[in-house]
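Q: Hi! Curious about what 4-diphosphocytidyl-2-C-methyl-D-erythritol kinase looks like structurally. Here's the sequence.
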Amino acid sequence: MTSVTVRVPAKVNLQLAVGPLRDDGYHDLVNVFHAVSLFDEVTAAPADALSVTVEGGSIEGVPVNADNLAARAALLLAERLGVAPNVALTIRKTIPVAGGMAGGSADAAAALVACARLWGAGDADADLWEPAAILGSDVPFALLGGTALGTGRGEVLTPVQTAGRFHWVFALADGGLSTPAVYAECDRLREAEGWRPAPPQASQDLMAALAAGDAHALGAALGNDLQPAALSLRPALRDTLAAGREHGALGALVSGSGPTCAFLAESADHAGELTAALSKAGVARSAVQAYGPVPGATIV
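A: Let's find out. The predicted structure is below.
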């Protein structure tokens, strides 16, 4: 086999409920993941040693060594299969870097699938779930795709019934936000307010909206406990969110740890209008249109 290419989607968190800080440094989460049609592609090809090449638009800060999460995925899988990690990984990025849409985790999931096929591990996808969870909380969902409820630290997944298609606009910011920094700021803000959160629970209004395919109800039910922390670290995002609401978004929130902002539109046409309005408003580096849910990591 000469090479294997895997396409993998970005995610938006429809609900991200963050519980108290645990003794292991993680938080208990209720995380409703939704895969959207912004894709990276990872190609794995035979080589004499592990290498990483990254292509795309804004890829500043993406490592091209063993620190890259896709490279770590290849190393972990090679160790488990008892093979040499001799693979050239080429990552073609469309998912924003450090944008709260799990691009690095998506690349890791794609690398697992591509290397498993390249190294003859077969189609036993279940064998990839454990290494995916070791690599990071968002990596298992990138394998699964669709819409799913994540619990624990986000890696325990249950598919969520979703009717129809939802249309989104994502406002991309200049620069990224560190996920650990946003969680630390969340903890700092809570401590300053003297507030200790209860164990997180899934929003029943959100689950009902997804099952019904009701975009208006879904927009009203979106929520992200990390949003105050992201806004504290990047106050300009308030203007981005306000602009989307002013131009008719059914719902608006920071995606994950940010700084990408997500806006739910009423239809594909409305998403196009909202994309143009946000681009004209000058409140983001760029705005892109997408839809969801879409499948997880898929060989192309």
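A: A fun detail: Residues 166-292 form a domain with the Alpha-Beta Plaits fold (CATH 3.30.70.890).
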